[in-house]
Amino acid sequence: MLTPDEIERWQDLDRRHYLHPFTDHSELGARGTRLIERGDGVYIQEASGHRLLDAMSGLWCVNLGYGRQELIDAACHQLQQLPFYNSFFQCTHSPAIRLAEQLCAVAPPGFSRVFFTNSGSEANDTVIRMVRYYWALQGQPERQVIIARRNAYHGSTVGAASLCGMPWMHAQAGLPIPGIVHIEQPYAFGLAGNQDPAEFGRVVARQLDTAIRDLGPGRVAAFIAEPVQGAGGAIIPPDTYWPEIQRICDAHGILLVADEVITGFGRLGQWFGSQHYGIRPDLMPFAKGVTSGYQPLGGVLVGDRVADVLVAKGGEFFHGFTYSGHPVACAVASATLEVLQRERLIERAREQVIPAFAARWQALADHPNVGEARSVGLIGALELVRDRAGRQRFAKELKVGERCRDLCIEQGLVMRAVGDTMIVAPPLVITEPQLDELVEKARRAVDLTIRSLRA
Ligand code: PXG
User: Fold this and answer.
1) Which of 57, 260, 262, 323 to mutate to test the pocket of ligand 1 (most atoms within 8 A of CB)?
2) For residue 222, how far is its CA from the centre of ligand 1 (angstroms)?
3) 3-class secondary-structure state, position 171
4) Ligand 1 atom closest to Cα of 152?
5) For residues 336-344, average pLDDT
6) pLDDT higher than threshold 90 for residue 356
7) Where are the alpha helices (DSSP H) in 192-239?
8) pLDDT digits (tens, 9 = 90+) for 60-70
9) 350 C-alpha vs ligand 1 centroid, how far in Å?
10) Is the pLDDT of residue 28 over 90?
11) Distance from the CA of 154 to the center of ligand 1, in angstroms?
């Protein structure tokens, strides 16, 4: 714990020197920052001593919770053994090899190779280069277009930001890069109106077919999507959506890329979100949960359809990072996968934690200002509305989501706001009493939010 003076000093230095990601700094300067000092299990603690249940797992990544000794030991051991070496120029090392082998073992059949990056953004940039190169090697260099979705989040590098379906990101940098096209997202609560959600799921999926036909069938390289859109507001597709998308990809022979950065490593009760939805992707970019957030690491699991072509006739792929397969990050990832396996945490999530979470989360739907309480796996969203019957949103200026988030923090809960959609994605290791605490605090925060509007 720090004294108020010490905290103020850090905050002042922060204000003067530190440019934060996705942050309006004039607003931040006015509102101030919270100094997070330590973590333990599913809780984090501010420098002031204030404890919070971290229902966002850091940023969708600390799936094993804070303070896992096995992960700490793996990092320390590897730092002593070999803190860095590269995988260029015919060199390699056991931490990267071991992790590649482990990842392929837990991936669905047909994945026997992996390319390492340091983040999800880099993983998706790798995807863009890989799918375009794949089609060129197949003698179809005109297949360059990648279809993504509105409101998707795939990262912040130039390529990944181009895949994102967030116009405000594009506007700041002249994006997207050429050859990226967006179709609608399967957001039933926001877009289906009176349409039956199942029918809506099929109709939105068919926009992929229309886009492929409009572009010309020989021009599309791949479709990329998150199994569940995370940063966009926990958009859970209707059950009809993914089967239709898979059918369309198969019919046109385009590559299917499942961005597993959030949904990988147990969040949906399977190793990968694709398995939950029965998707058969050709490429799976991943990051976050692979190290439980303890080290920066991402990568692309490359299905045999693509990898066999790259390896057999690709020659040198002019792509890679100094830290591709960083030994310390890989050692921590290996330890993460071992903990998931040894403690059967994914099975436990599927059989116990997820049903316990879903039941509690669903109970929030009876709140008069909750238009929908939806969840899949350990991802939950609440749509805050002025009037439940008419699904009427609050006026934007009221910043209801932000108010609710701030009130959550006062209650000792980290819940994220995307507009007026409140989101949680707790660690896989959360217990039932902690789930009770999460939901109680969320309900109280919603109550207080509505009360603050009346005041
Ligand atoms: N794909 C998906 C699906 C993501 O959620 C990335 C790629 C990029 O990963 P890196 O490691 O480059 O950040 C992400 C990242 C939010 C939020 O506000 C979500 C992410 C990042 C920052 C904020 O929910 N997801």
Assistant:
1) 262
2) 20
3) helix
4) 3
5) 98
6) yes
7) 197-215
8) 999 999 999 99
9) 23
10) no
11) 6
pLDDT at residue 268 is higher than 90: yes
Residue whose token pair is 């990072």: 321
Q: Would you state the structure tokens that stand for residue 153, as one six-digit string?
A: 């989040």
CA-nearest residue, atom 9 of ligand 1 = 120
Centre of ligand 1 to C-alpha 413, Å, is 21
Residue 229 CB-density burial (10 A; 0-12 exposed, 13-18 middle, 19+ buried):
buried
Among the four given CATH numbers 3.40.50.720, 1.20.1260.10, 3.40.630.30, 3.90.1150.10, the one describing domain 34-67+344-454? 3.90.1150.10
CA separation (Å) from 287 to 114, 117, 265, 314, 317?
12, 8, 9, 25, 21
Domain boundaries, the chain: 34-67+344-454, 70-342
Ligand 1, CB cutoff 6 Å, lining residues: 59, 119-121, 124, 153-155, 226, 230-231, 259, 261-262, 287, 298
Q: What is the pLDDT of residue 313?
A: 96
CATH number 1.20.1250.20 given to 70-342: no
